[in-house]
C-alpha cells in the first residue's frame, strides 16, 4: 500500500493507522460460499510457498490470499483456473505492496519446481487477462487492509520494560521482544490457514496475535491497558480469535512432539515424553491478567534456542489439491520442510495448570 518503510515509527503513524481502521470498515463482505472452499487451504499454501521463495513481504502474501478468498467467494472456478487465479493474485498483490524490482517475473515463476509438478505454464497474455479480471472484480481498488498491515503498529508497544515474565522482571527486554516478533509472525501465518478468521476484522486478528503471543510467552498482564487503548479492543473482544489461534498452536506442538518421538524411535533412542500435563486451551483465556506463582526469576531466554519459522516452505514439490489433507501444522505436505525440533518446557499458566512452550529454558 504505497507506505514508507516502518511507517509505524513515523510522525504520521497514528493518521495512517486511523485510515487503515476506517478502510477496514468498508471491506467487501465474505460469505464463505465458494464451491471450492475445501481447496482453499491448498491454494493459500501455494501462495505462501511462492512468497517465501521470493522473500516477499507479509502484507503482499496476506493481500494475495485475501484477494483469492474474495474471488473464490464470488465465482465458481475450476481447479486448473484456480492455479492461475492464485498466482495472479500474488503477482497483483506484489505490484501493490512490493517494490517493482521485487515483483516475481513470469519466466521466474515458470521456472519454479512446483510449476512443473503441477504441469502448469503461465503465459503473459493469460496472466494479464486474469489480472484485469481481478481488478475489474474489485473495481480497481486493492486498498484492502489485512492483519499484516496492523501487526507492526501494535508490535511497537507489545513488550515494554514494565512487563513481567512469570511474575518477575524480564531478564532481557531485547530477547523478549525478539520472541514476541517471532510468535506474532507465527500466529499471523496461522490466521491465513483457515477462512474462519475472515469473520473478524483484520485489526482484531492482529491484536489477537499479540495477545496469544503474550500468553505463550507468559508475559503479564496478558493484555495490558496500553494495548487495549492502542487497538481499541478489550480482552473480551479478542477471546474467540485468541482461542482459535491457541488451538492451532497446541496442534503444532503435538505434531512437533510426535515428529520428534518418531525420529528418536528411528534412531533407537528413548521415546520422547512431554514433561508436564498439557492444559486445555481454555485455561489461557480465563483472565486477562493472570497471577503467577512467585518463584526465582529465570535466567532469561535460551541462548541456543532456534526460533525458526513454523512455516518453512520450499518449492521443490507441491502435492495437488486432490491429495490427502493435512493438519494445521503444515502448509503443504510435500513442499514444506520439517519443523525444527521444539524442546518441551512446562511452565505455569495459573496456580493449577501448566503448558509447554519452546522459548524459555527451565
TrEMBL record:
It holds the Pfam family Cyclin_C. It comes from the Eukaryota. Residues 145-276 form the Cyclin C-terminal domain. SMART domains: CYCLIN, Cyclin_C. This is Cyclin-J. Keywords: Cyclin. The lineage of its organism: Eukaryota, Metazoa, Chordata, Craniata, Vertebrata. SUPFAM superfamilies: Cyclin-like. InterPro entries: Cyclin (IPR039361), Cyclin-like_dom (IPR013763), Cyclin-like_sf (IPR036915), Cyclin_C-dom (IPR004367), Cyclin_N (IPR006671). Transmembrane segments: none annotated.
Amino acid at each position: 500500500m504505497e507506505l514508507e518503510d516502518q511507517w509505524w515509527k513515523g510522525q504520521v503513524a497514528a493518521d495512517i493507522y486511523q485510515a487503515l481502521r476506517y478502510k477496514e470498515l468498508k471491506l467487501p463482505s465474505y460469505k464463505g460460499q465458494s464451491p471450492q472452499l475445501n481447496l482453499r487451504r491448498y491454494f493459500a499454501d501455494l501462495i505462501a510457498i511462492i512468497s517465501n521463495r521470493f522473500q516477499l513481504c507479509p502484507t503482499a502474501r496476506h493481500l494475495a490470499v485475501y484477494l483469492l478468498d474474495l474471488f473464490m467467494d464470488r465465482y465458481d472456478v475450476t481447479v486448473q483456473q484456480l492455479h492461475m487465479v492464485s498466482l495472479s493474485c500474488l503477482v497483483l498483490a506484489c505490484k501493490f505492496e512490493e517494490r517493482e524490482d521485487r515483483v516475481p517475473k513470469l519466466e521466474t515463476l515458470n521456472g519454479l519446481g512446483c510449476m512443473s509438478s503441477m504441469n502448469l505454464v503461465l503465459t503473459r497474455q493469460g496472466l494479464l487477462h486474469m489480472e484485469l479480471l481481478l481488478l475489474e472484480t474489485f473495481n480497481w481498488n486493492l486498498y484492502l487492509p489485512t492483519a499484516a498491515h496492523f501487526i507492526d503498529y501494535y508490535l511497537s508497544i507489545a513488550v515494554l520494560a514494565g512487563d513481567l515474565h512469570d511474575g518477575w522482571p524480564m531478564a532481557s527486554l531485547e530477547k523478549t521482544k525478539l520472541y514476541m516478533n517471532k510468535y506474532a509472525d507465527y500466529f499471523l501465518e496461522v490466521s491465513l490457514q483457515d477462512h474462519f478468521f475472515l469473520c473478524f476484522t483484520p485489526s482484531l486478528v492482529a491484536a489477537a496475535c499479540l495477545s496469544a503471543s503474550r500468553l505463550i510467552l507468559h508475559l503479564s498482564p496478558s493484555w495490558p491497558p496500553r494495548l487495549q487503548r492502542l487497538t481499541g479492543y478489550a480482552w473480551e473482544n479478542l477471546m474467540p480469535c485468541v482461542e482459535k489461534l491457541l488451538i492451532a498452536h497446541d496442534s503444532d506442538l503435538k505434531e512437533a512432539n510426535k515428529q520428534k518421538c518418531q525420529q528418536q524411535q528411528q534412531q533407537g533412542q528413548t521415546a520422547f515424553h512431554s514433561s508436564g500435563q498439557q492444559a486445555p486451551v481454555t485455561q489461557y483465556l480465563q483472565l486477562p491478567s493472570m497471577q503467577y506463582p512467585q518463584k526465582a526469576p529465570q535466567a532469561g531466554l535460551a541462548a541456543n534456542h532456534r526460533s525458526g519459522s513454523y512455516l518453512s516452505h520450499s518449492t521443490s514439490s507441491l502435492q495437488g489439491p486432490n491429495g490427502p489433507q493435512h493438519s494445521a501444522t503444515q502448509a503443504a505436505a510435500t513442499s514444506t520442510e520439517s519443523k525444527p525440533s521444539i524442546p518441551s518446557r512446562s511452565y505455569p499458566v495459573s496456580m493449577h495448570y501448566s503448558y509447554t512452550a519452546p522459548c524459555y529454558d527451565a
